């Protein structure tokens, strides 16, 4: 099973995990978050983030998917320093559909999980119109 680490601003990671737990019916295993506040020094958070990646990959060894919120922002920059192609991969733009899709396909190989998570994230973005909402 692939571990998932959310690195995001403030309490966004906690909120996403709370919502995913509601959708999935229980708290998924091997799922952690690291919240980054305006007062945090990214250099100080990097060892903690590395430790979390190690913990998530320790038992299962299937790899780790890091989900971050905004590309180029501090959480994403921290995540980018943790990437190891084929072992630790990352996606920015995390949203609830992306997380639920990632949780649903985490027993697949990491490259498959990446594609499923990204398609879930983008596929979950829908312009709600009157016609769509009535169907």
From TrEMBL:
One of its GO terms (cellular component) is cytoplasm. Its EC number is 2.7.1.194. Transmembrane segments: none annotated. Its main location: cytoplasm. Pfam families: EIIA-man. Gene3D superfamilies: Phosphotransferase system, mannose-type IIA component. Keywords: Cytoplasm, Kinase, Phosphotransferase system, Sugar transport, Transferase, Transport. It is an enzyme of class 2 (transferase). GO terms for biological process: phosphoenolpyruvate-dependent sugar phosphotransferase system. Residues 1-125 form the PTS EIIA type-4 domain. PROSITE patterns: PTS_EIIA_TYPE_4. PANTHER family: PTS PERMEASE-RELATED-RELATED, PTS SYSTEM MANNOSE-SPECIFIC EIIAB COMPONENT-RELATED. This is PTS system, ascorbate-specific IIA component. It comes from Novimethylophilus kurashikiensis.
């Amino acid at each position: 099973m692939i571990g998932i680490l959310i690195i995001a601003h403030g309490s966004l990671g906690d909120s996403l995990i709370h919502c995913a737990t509601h959708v999935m019916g229980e708290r998924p295993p091997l799922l952690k978050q690291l919240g980054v506040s305006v007062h945090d020094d990214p250099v100080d958070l990097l060892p903690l983030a590395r430790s979390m990646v190690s913990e998530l990959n320790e038992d299962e060894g299937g790899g780790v998917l890091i989900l971050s919120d905004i590309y180029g922002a501090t959480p994403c920059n921290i995540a980018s320093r943790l990437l190891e192609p084929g072992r630790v991969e990352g996606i920015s733009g995390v949203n609830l559909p992306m997380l639920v899709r990632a949780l649903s396909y985490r027993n697949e190989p990491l490259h498959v999980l990446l594609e499923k998570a990204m398609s879930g994230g983008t596929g979950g973005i829908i312009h709600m119109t009157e016609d769509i909402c009535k169907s």
